[in-house]
Amino acid sequence: MKRVLSGIQPSGQLTLGNYIGAIQNFVKLQETHECYFMVVDLHAITVPQEPAALREQTESVAALFIAAGIDPAKASVFAQSHVPAHAELGWLFTTLSYMGELERMTQFKDKSSGKESVGTGLFVYPTLMAADILLYNADLVPVGDDQKQHLELTRDLAQRFNQRFGDTFTIPDPYIPKVGARIMSLDDGTKKMSKSNPNPGSYIALLDPPDVIRKKISRATTDSGREVRFDPAEKPEVSNLMSIYAHCADMTLDDIAARYDGQGYGAFKKDLAEHVVAKLEPLQRRYADIRGSGEIHDILKRGAEQVSAVANETLRAAKERMGFLLPR
Ligand code: ATP
Ligand code: MG
């Protein structure tokens, strides 16, 4: 069975972008693949996190995985920091990476732009991500379009290691959805929706109450026209709202354009909000049950136990090939 691995940072409230771009594929892939889904807390601290918030968000992301339909009986769900091999293999890959290739990463450029001081963690982030994936010799990595470049670097690092030290790592392939791979910000159709955006009006959080969702969508930026038409170049904001609509209402973009022909944005946005509310309602109900039961701690503990043997074995093999004297 092919192996799948992916992770989400507990760096804020999960958004509809995370759901459409990543989590909904996790749910599908668990039926046919051996799956590893992590809350990547070590990545979240590459930008400052308040300790209490980090703890809460880690639990919240794990509970949202389950609420969204990930079944811990089918997939291993765990926290990255519960498996120390991630940090250790991450260091080994950091030493194999070059400044130049990390400087080219657009996520680094985006997240560091305009900042007076930029943390080194943010810079070496992709080497830890490579370790996350390669530690389990994953075949497939379901991610949004924004992670494509990091995945290419992961492939390069795996190949570099294999060439220098002998065949050790599987070269992973990205698995990016055809529709919804990049959901854009509600306040700026040229920027991707991100949970760490300081303006909550820029994203729809999976846990936003219905009235907040309605308000955010009614305030979402649109162009000055009135035509509901899918044209990402000319009408990025409206096109993005149409993608969200298509996903939540399970309709095609053509059907949506036809339905709102000649009606302007008002009716379109109003219906969109109701479709988003309806889509998230069952997930929010399940989330409340899971948090209430406290079961998430057991799920994470079991998950870390399940994956540790594979992780430790890969790390041992990598260290041996690199020439570390292993304890006997
Ligand atoms: P942050 O702002 O802290 O980086 P994020 O919203 O980008 O948060 P990540 O934890 O970095 O979320 O990414 C989790 C997964 O969600 C990745 O697979 C990523 O590609 C995907 N993803 C993130 N944003 C979007 C988006 N706007 N559209 C589609 N997929 C997305
Ligand atoms: Mg991100």
TrEMBL record:
DNA repair as UniProt keyword: no
Motif 'KMSKS' region per record, residues: 192-196
Subcellular location as annotated: Cytoplasm
Keywords associated with the record: Aminoacyl-tRNA synthetase, ATP-binding, Cytoplasm, Ligase, Nucleotide-binding, Protein biosynthesis
Motif ('HIGH' region): 10-18
Domain of life where this protein originates: Bacteria
Keyword set includes Protein biosynthesis: yes
Binding site for L-tryptophan: D132
Molecular-function annotations in GO: tryptophan-tRNA ligase activity
InterPro entries xrefs: aa-tRNA-synth_I_CS, aa-tRNA-synth_Ic, Rossmann-like_a/b/a_fold, Trp-tRNA-ligase, Trp-tRNA-ligase_bac-type, Trp-tRNA_synthetase
UniProt binding sites for ATP: Q9, P10, S11, G17, N18, G144, D145, D146, I183, K192, M193, S194, K195, S196
EC numbers: 6.1.1.2
Reaction it catalyzes: tRNA(Trp) + L-tryptophan + ATP = L-tryptophyl-tRNA(Trp) + AMP + diphosphate + H(+)
Family (UniProt): Belongs to the class-I aminoacyl-tRNA synthetase family.
Subunit structure, interactors included: Homodimer.
Physiological role: Catalyzes the attachment of tryptophan to tRNA(Trp).
Protein name: Tryptophan--tRNA ligase
Organism: Paenibacillus artemisiicola
Gene behind this protein: trpS
